[in-house]
Amino acid sequence: SGPSVLANRTILITAGPTREPIDAVRFIANRSSGRMGFAIAAAAAMAGARVTLIAGPSALPTPAGVTRVDVQTALEMHSATLSRAEAADIFVAAAAVADYRVAEPATGKVKKTDAPPSLQLTPNPDIVRDVAAMPDAPFTLGFAAETDDLIHHAQGKLNAKGLDMIAANRVGDGLGFEVDDNQLEVIWNGGGATLGPMPKRQLATALIKLLGEHWHAAR
Ligand code: PMT
Questions:
Q1: How far is CA 120 from CA 31, 40, 48, 104, 106, in A?
Q2: Which of 16, 101, 121, 216 could be bridged to 20 by S-S, CB 3.0 to 4.6 A?
Q3: Beta bridge partners of 54
Q4: What's the rounded Cα separation, in Å, for the pair 208 and 164?
Q5: Is pTM, for the whole model, over 0.90?
Q6: Is 126 annotated as a binding residue?
Q7: Quick one: which H or E segment has residue 183?
Q8: 3-class DSSP state for residue 67?
Q9: Complex ipTM over 0.95
């Protein structure tokens, strides 16, 4: 095979969950392990790209040749990503970002009471939408995690968020989050491809190849 089209290109990737604090010891999060996004970072580095991985809390090791920036909350992931997006050729949003955060997290540990407590939530900024809306936006691949109507909802997110491509995965019933294997329906304006089911590492290699081809064609 010839030289990779992604050689020396700059790729920015988000991965993992975010943690939204409730008080000093508690948080709201989700089941993302970071595996999909970390595998994409590893595959991009293998293809010769300069890779920065903005990682929510994950126990996974940093892939070889990847620069890792650790964050906790969606707001931290948003600013860490936006400040690096202008320098990127490609942005991949594989993180499972919390749509909401607790409006006013307590600074200490909240005491147990007899009455059931309530939490006031407020929306988080949409990282991938904000990157795609930048004047000099990188080529942007988003993800969609759906339990039903996969293609329909993914198509909606592709359009609503102004993305170049979207990779949709079915979640629930032992698919998508946390597990090793995944299947992706990749959609762009005018086409699509099914990748997998296969282990996330292989899937990431196939996705990076497809992404390189589309980025190259769009230049
Ligand atoms: O980490 P693993 O355990 O390996 O699991 C992988 C995964 C299932 C988490 C991954 O493949 C995946 O689908 N990630 C996106 C999950 C998700 O949050 O999807 P969504 O449909 O809620 O969001 C759509 C897109 O908008 C995603 O690209 C997401 O990163 C992005 N987003 C969402 C909200 C927000 N505030 N900012 C964002 O950038």
A1: 22, 35, 45, 8, 12
A2: 101
A3: 14, 69
A4: 14
A5: yes
A6: yes
A7: strand 181-188
A8: strand
A9: yes
